[in-house]
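Milestone M4 deliverable, item 7.
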Amino acid sequence: MKLPGQDAIARQADEHLVTHRVKLPRKLVEHPIRQVGKRLSLALVVLLATALIVYADQDGYNDNSDGSVDLLDAFYYATVTLSTTGYGDITPVSDSARLTNIFVITPLRVLFLIILVGTTLEALTERTREEWRLNRWRSTLRDHTVVVGFGTKGRSAISTVCATGLRKEQVVVVDPSGKAIDAATAHGFAGVVGDATRSDVLNRAEVYRAKQIIIATQRDDTAVLVTLTARQLNRSAKIVVAVREEENAPLLKQSGADAVITSASAAGRLLGLSVLSPAAGMVMEDLISQGSGLDLVERPVIKAEVGKSPRETDDLVVSVLRGHRVLGYDDPAVGALELTDRLITIVRATPGTQVAPDARPLPRD
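Output delivered:
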């Protein structure tokens, strides 16, 4: 099997060094340094307010060392009081000072402690919330789409399947790069950081419950291993794989892939077609681009079309899917259309609208 060059190997050298974890989409939060700065500022404000309150009523306090309370003593008392240390060397003796401690300084002490331990409490709360989200996500995830690789091919594949009305919550991205998963979650997709050739990583993506699996890795040998692992975990899912070299396509099909897209050959054919006929190349590029110009769509035969030939339909029919056979529009075996047939047609794309759920855009190279 032909492998890419050393540059591709270097780019993927850290695949096995990544600890796999699940990341769910989340809203943007404030930078941690800014959060800590705000908490420290608020704590200093509480400390300053407490010291000034004590100093304003300094005659109501007694210092065991010299009997009087100055500004330094006020800050010292505020510090040991708010931190609940309480050495007892400075004590409130007047009624007003004691009432101030009950109704003012005690609430300030509680607020000070909340500020100090707020970061820890927030971290614990966030961890609990994240665990709850993960458990809920796993329990509700069914018939979803797993996309292995969030590169150019993976992102294009996701855009295509989402054009059919598939919700973002039904897409799970697996990639060994943490930055790629961060980009995926920023777009609203759940992500799993890790090497997809490992079954435990695919299990975290709930691949055994997936309806379809798209494999768009950078290397063909990785694609083979991912396909073997995914097919072992899920016997019924539809697996579509992208490879660079056409000679590796038969191996992918033997590994369990339902469809194999050869990206290098497809790009080469498009280049050759554009040289021979620039206009034909533009049409092919238009068909490949999803959501604009012309689109390839698979749809069911409607009752009004039953008994007609493909050329008698309103749409431009390219092929007829009958059972597991794909027949050309001019194939004599097609004859009259049947209700169980599906048509592959060329339609005018309407930007900003979604394809009907029963009409599926065909995979792009």
